[in-house]
Protein backbone atom coordinates (compact mmCIF):
# COMPACT_ATOMS: atom_id res chain seq x y z
CA UNK A 1 0.00 0.00 0.00
CA UNK A 2 1.29 3.43 -0.94
CA UNK A 3 2.16 5.93 1.80
CA UNK A 4 -0.63 8.31 0.81
CA UNK A 5 -3.15 5.45 0.94
CA UNK A 6 -2.01 4.55 4.46
CA UNK A 7 -2.52 8.15 5.56
CA UNK A 8 -5.96 8.32 3.94
CA UNK A 9 -7.02 5.09 5.67
CA UNK A 10 -5.75 6.38 9.01
CA UNK A 11 -7.70 9.62 8.71
CA UNK A 12 -10.84 7.79 7.55
CA UNK A 13 -10.53 5.50 10.58
CA UNK A 14 -10.36 8.55 12.83
CA UNK A 15 -13.46 9.98 11.17
CA UNK A 16 -15.44 6.74 11.36
CA UNK A 17 -14.43 6.12 14.97
CA UNK A 18 -15.52 9.63 15.97
CA UNK A 19 -12.08 11.04 16.79
CA UNK A 20 -12.85 13.65 14.15
CA UNK A 21 -16.53 14.55 14.51
CA UNK A 22 -18.84 15.93 11.84
CA UNK A 23 -18.15 19.56 11.06
CA UNK A 24 -14.86 19.40 12.94
CA UNK A 25 -11.64 20.60 11.35
CA UNK A 26 -9.12 17.89 10.49
CA UNK A 27 -5.39 18.10 9.92
CA UNK A 28 -3.97 20.89 7.83
CA UNK A 29 -1.53 20.23 5.00
CA UNK A 30 1.34 21.20 7.33
CA UNK A 31 0.09 18.92 10.11
CA UNK A 32 -0.12 15.96 7.69
CA UNK A 33 3.44 16.68 6.58
CA UNK A 34 4.71 16.83 10.18
CA UNK A 35 2.68 13.93 11.63
CA UNK A 36 3.29 11.48 8.80
CA UNK A 37 6.69 12.79 7.66
CA UNK A 38 5.67 13.27 4.01
CA UNK A 39 6.08 15.92 1.33
CA UNK A 40 3.67 18.75 0.52
CA UNK A 41 2.68 16.91 -2.67
CA UNK A 42 1.61 13.84 -0.69
CA UNK A 43 -0.24 15.93 1.90
CA UNK A 44 -2.18 17.76 -0.81
CA UNK A 45 -3.03 14.47 -2.51
CA UNK A 46 -4.35 13.04 0.77
CA UNK A 47 -6.66 16.01 1.25
CA UNK A 48 -7.81 15.96 -2.38
CA UNK A 49 -8.62 12.25 -2.16
CA UNK A 50 -10.61 12.75 1.04
CA UNK A 51 -12.57 15.56 -0.61
CA UNK A 52 -13.26 13.45 -3.71
CA UNK A 53 -14.42 10.49 -1.62
CA UNK A 54 -16.76 12.74 0.35
CA UNK A 55 -15.20 12.44 3.80
CA UNK A 56 -14.21 16.09 4.06
CA UNK A 57 -14.94 19.45 2.49
CA UNK A 58 -12.79 22.54 2.24
CA UNK A 59 -13.48 26.15 3.18
CA UNK A 60 -11.09 28.58 1.55
CA UNK A 61 -8.90 30.33 4.09
CA UNK A 62 -10.17 28.20 6.98
CA UNK A 63 -9.23 24.58 6.35
CA UNK A 64 -10.73 21.10 5.82
CA UNK A 65 -13.72 19.83 7.76
CA UNK A 66 -15.48 16.49 8.23
CA UNK A 67 -18.54 16.10 6.01
CA UNK A 68 -21.85 15.36 7.66
CA UNK A 69 -23.08 12.83 5.12
CA UNK A 70 -20.63 9.95 5.60
CA UNK A 71 -19.60 10.30 9.23
CA UNK A 72 -19.43 6.93 11.01
CA UNK A 73 -21.46 5.25 8.29
CA UNK A 74 -20.55 2.83 5.53
CA UNK A 75 -22.98 2.52 2.62
CA UNK A 76 -23.40 0.36 -0.47
CA UNK A 77 -23.83 2.13 -3.77
CA UNK A 78 -25.22 0.48 -6.91
CA UNK A 79 -25.38 2.11 -10.34
CA UNK A 80 -27.93 0.93 -12.89
CA UNK A 81 -29.13 2.05 -16.28
CA UNK A 82 -32.82 2.62 -16.82
CA UNK A 83 -32.94 1.25 -20.35
CA UNK A 84 -35.72 -1.28 -19.76
CA UNK A 85 -38.29 1.52 -19.58
CA UNK A 86 -37.26 2.98 -22.94
CA UNK A 87 -35.69 0.25 -25.08
CA UNK A 88 -36.13 -3.38 -25.99
CA UNK A 89 -33.69 -5.91 -24.46
CA UNK A 90 -32.65 -6.68 -28.05
CA UNK A 91 -31.52 -3.11 -28.69
CA UNK A 92 -27.75 -2.73 -28.67
CA UNK A 93 -25.82 0.09 -27.07
CA UNK A 94 -23.27 1.68 -29.40
CA UNK A 95 -20.83 4.57 -29.28
CA UNK A 96 -19.69 7.16 -31.79
CA UNK A 97 -16.33 8.87 -31.55
CA UNK A 98 -16.79 12.58 -32.15
CA UNK A 99 -13.13 13.56 -32.00
CA UNK A 100 -9.68 12.49 -30.84
CA UNK A 101 -7.02 15.14 -30.45
CA UNK A 102 -3.86 16.07 -28.61
CA UNK A 103 -4.30 19.10 -26.35
CA UNK A 104 -2.69 20.96 -23.48
CA UNK A 105 -5.04 21.91 -20.63
CA UNK A 106 -3.33 23.17 -17.50
CA UNK A 107 -6.51 23.14 -15.40
CA UNK A 108 -7.29 19.49 -16.18
CA UNK A 109 -3.68 18.51 -15.50
CA UNK A 110 -3.45 20.22 -12.13
CA UNK A 111 -7.00 19.84 -10.81
CA UNK A 112 -7.77 16.27 -11.85
CA UNK A 113 -4.60 14.51 -13.01
CA UNK A 114 -2.31 15.93 -10.30
CA UNK A 115 0.47 16.65 -12.79
CA UNK A 116 2.13 19.65 -14.32
CA UNK A 117 0.74 20.86 -17.62
CA UNK A 118 1.61 18.45 -20.42
CA UNK A 119 0.13 16.98 -23.58
CA UNK A 120 -3.11 15.03 -23.16
CA UNK A 121 -5.13 12.78 -25.41
CA UNK A 122 -8.74 13.96 -25.40
CA UNK A 123 -11.43 11.57 -26.68
CA UNK A 124 -15.03 12.76 -27.08
CA UNK A 125 -17.71 10.12 -27.54
CA UNK A 126 -21.47 9.89 -27.51
CA UNK A 127 -23.30 6.69 -26.53
CA UNK A 128 -26.62 5.79 -28.10
CA UNK A 129 -29.30 3.13 -28.49
CA UNK A 130 -31.60 3.09 -31.51
CA UNK A 131 -30.42 6.55 -32.56
CA UNK A 132 -31.24 7.93 -29.10
CA UNK A 133 -28.20 9.58 -27.54
CA UNK A 134 -28.12 8.95 -23.81
CA UNK A 135 -24.56 9.78 -22.67
CA UNK A 136 -21.66 12.06 -23.57
CA UNK A 137 -18.16 11.23 -22.40
CA UNK A 138 -14.79 12.98 -22.54
CA UNK A 139 -11.61 11.11 -21.57
CA UNK A 140 -8.34 12.87 -20.79
CA UNK A 141 -5.19 10.72 -20.64
CA UNK A 142 -1.58 11.95 -20.44
CA UNK A 143 0.05 11.21 -23.79
CA UNK A 144 3.08 9.87 -21.91
CA UNK A 145 0.99 6.83 -20.89
CA UNK A 146 0.17 6.02 -24.52
CA UNK A 147 3.46 5.97 -26.48
CA UNK A 148 3.17 5.47 -30.23
CA UNK A 149 -0.53 6.31 -30.20
CA UNK A 150 -2.09 6.80 -33.65
CA UNK A 151 -5.10 9.12 -33.52
CA UNK A 152 -5.72 9.20 -37.28
CA UNK A 153 -8.42 6.48 -37.18
CA UNK A 154 -11.00 7.59 -34.62
CA UNK A 155 -12.93 4.33 -34.88
CA UNK A 156 -10.11 2.67 -32.93
CA UNK A 157 -11.35 4.63 -29.91
CA UNK A 158 -14.95 3.38 -29.89
CA UNK A 159 -14.02 0.79 -27.28
CA UNK A 160 -11.35 2.78 -25.51
CA UNK A 161 -10.81 0.44 -22.55
CA UNK A 162 -10.39 -2.55 -24.88
CA UNK A 163 -7.88 -0.69 -27.04
CA UNK A 164 -5.82 0.35 -24.01
CA UNK A 165 -5.87 -3.18 -22.59
CA UNK A 166 -4.73 -4.77 -25.85
CA UNK A 167 -2.13 -2.18 -26.86
CA UNK A 168 -0.76 -1.08 -23.48
CA UNK A 169 -1.61 -4.00 -21.17
CA UNK A 170 -3.52 -1.73 -18.81
CA UNK A 171 -6.99 -2.87 -17.75
CA UNK A 172 -8.59 0.35 -16.54
CA UNK A 173 -11.76 -1.49 -15.52
CA UNK A 174 -9.78 -3.31 -12.84
CA UNK A 175 -7.91 -0.29 -11.49
CA UNK A 176 -8.98 1.84 -8.53
CA UNK A 177 -11.04 4.92 -9.20
CA UNK A 178 -12.85 7.78 -7.52
CA UNK A 179 -16.07 9.27 -8.80
CA UNK A 180 -18.24 12.24 -7.88
CA UNK A 181 -21.83 12.59 -9.08
CA UNK A 182 -24.04 15.65 -9.29
CA UNK A 183 -27.15 16.76 -11.18
CA UNK A 184 -27.00 19.73 -13.50
CA UNK A 185 -29.30 21.77 -15.68
CA UNK A 186 -26.30 23.61 -17.11
CA UNK A 187 -24.54 21.11 -19.33
CA UNK A 188 -22.64 22.82 -22.18
CA UNK A 189 -24.83 23.61 -25.18
CA UNK A 190 -23.04 21.17 -27.50
CA UNK A 191 -23.80 18.37 -25.04
CA UNK A 192 -27.41 19.43 -24.46
CA UNK A 193 -28.04 19.30 -28.19
CA UNK A 194 -26.89 15.70 -28.29
CA UNK A 195 -28.28 14.10 -25.13
CA UNK A 196 -30.76 16.58 -23.60
CA UNK A 197 -32.44 18.40 -26.50
CA UNK A 198 -35.47 19.26 -24.37
CA UNK A 199 -33.29 20.80 -21.67
CA UNK A 200 -33.65 17.79 -19.38
CA UNK A 201 -31.46 17.57 -16.27
CA UNK A 202 -28.33 15.46 -16.58
CA UNK A 203 -26.23 13.47 -14.18
CA UNK A 204 -22.70 14.84 -14.25
CA UNK A 205 -19.77 12.61 -13.33
CA UNK A 206 -16.13 13.35 -12.60
CA UNK A 207 -14.10 10.14 -12.48
CA UNK A 208 -10.39 9.56 -11.96
CA UNK A 209 -8.90 6.15 -12.71
CA UNK A 210 -5.59 5.31 -11.07
CA UNK A 211 -2.57 3.56 -12.51
CA UNK A 212 -1.11 0.66 -10.53
CA UNK A 213 1.68 3.02 -9.41
CA UNK A 214 -0.87 5.24 -7.65
CA UNK A 215 -0.83 8.09 -10.17
CA UNK A 216 -3.98 9.23 -11.97
CA UNK A 217 -4.13 7.45 -15.33
CA UNK A 218 -7.17 9.23 -16.74
CA UNK A 219 -9.79 11.81 -15.93
CA UNK A 220 -13.27 11.32 -17.37
CA UNK A 221 -16.14 13.79 -17.58
CA UNK A 222 -19.52 12.16 -18.27
CA UNK A 223 -23.01 13.53 -18.79
CA UNK A 224 -26.04 11.22 -18.80
CA UNK A 225 -29.64 12.19 -19.52
CA UNK A 226 -31.46 11.65 -16.21
CA UNK A 227 -33.97 9.22 -17.76
CA UNK A 228 -31.37 6.57 -18.43
CA UNK A 229 -29.58 6.31 -15.10
CA UNK A 230 -30.42 5.54 -11.49
CA UNK A 231 -28.62 4.79 -8.27
CA UNK A 232 -29.45 2.69 -5.24
CA UNK A 233 -27.93 3.47 -1.85
CA UNK A 234 -28.37 1.29 1.21
CA UNK A 235 -26.56 0.52 4.44
From TrEMBL:
It holds the Pfam family GntR. Residues 1-69 form the HTH gntR-type domain. SUPFAM superfamilies: Chorismate lyase-like, Winged helix' DNA-binding domain. InterPro entries: Bact_HTH_transcr_reg, Chorismate_lyase_/UTRA_dom_sf, Tscrpt_reg_HTH_GntR, UTRA, WH-like_DNA-bd_sf, WH_DNA-bd_sf. Keywords: DNA-binding, Transcription, Transcription regulation. PROSITE patterns: HTH_GNTR (PS50949). The keyword Transcription regulation applies. It comes from the Bacteria. The keyword Transcription regulation applies. This is GntR family transcriptional regulator.
